[in-house]
Amino acid sequence: MLNLAQIKDYAHRAGFDLCGVTPSLNLTTEGEFLKQWIDHGFSSTLGYMERNIDKRADITRLVEGAKSVIVCGVAYKNEFSNGYSDDCRQKIASYALNRDYHKSIKQMLKQLLNNLKELDKSVSGRVFTDSAPVFEKRYAVEAGLGWIGRQSLLVTPQFGTFVLLGVAIINQECDSYDSPLQGVGCGNCHRCIDACPNNAIIDRHIDTRLCISRATIEQTDDNSLPLHGWIFGCDACQSCCPYNHCAPMATNPHFTPLFNPLDIDWQKIDEAEFSLRFAPTPLSRSSLRRIRENVE
Ligand code: SF4
Ligand code: SF4
Q1: Domain containing 12: what range?
Q2: Distance between Cα 68 and ligand 2 center (Å)
Q3: What would the pLDDT profile of 175-200 be if each residue is shown by its tens digit?
Q4: Structure pTM?
Q5: d(CA 34, CA 134)
Q6: Choosing from 130, 178, 203, 222, which is the catalytic residue?
């Protein structure tokens, strides 16, 4: 059996700002909600959301013998997270200015898991960050990291929504577990709903057909959605959130911007420069051609 405080200490040493642990849960209800969301057509081109819903609901189908879920978060707020001027035509979501978080967070989770294995040889498990069908946000709520905001993101009291999540699912129980936060939430606030330029937010769900983040990142043949100056991702429903206004800037060096989005002349750089400068960042998921189209 693992010690909760020891797990949190390892998580912080690995570079995480937040860590909570919860038992593995049967999330059949979440699976049903996800099916309804898909049936409404809200998933649009996010075909991966429709796969492996049974594994999302029951993580023992993903990791045999799963007993505990360690949910870790790292804050990434930077100078561009507060938003851009209204007339800016090359806005980039602030997480995308950093190194690709999939790689950074996976490394940090592996360090955490390796430390746990050194401590107790019977520990085994797997680590995930957006790489497998896991209800990460629901587990984050159960592990006491925050609550689900009206724009469907995890809101944490300390770091707002500018937090990236990763989970380690392990085969061992803990001596104690975290529990959901009490007495915190969005209250009467609805700023994120009001701030969405395409009215894509519906009662803690996103209609991704209208979402700029989806339209600028995922593969799509439909270029008719208004982008409101965003060329990769969209932070509009986050920069307005009062919890983000008082959140501190990121301190983990993996989550500091590698470039200034206002300095780039997208019409002047060529393919070679694009590959060289943006390969380490999430922009590598797009292409110079597509980004130029979005700018235009
Ligand atoms: S990311 Fe942008 S378009 Fe999508 S829901 Fe948030 S504000 Fe709306
Ligand atoms: S902007 Fe307001 S409603 Fe939206 S997540 Fe933040 S606190 Fe909640």
Answers
A1: 4-295
A2: 29
A3: 999 999 999 999 999 999 999 999 99
A4: 0.92
A5: 12
A6: 130
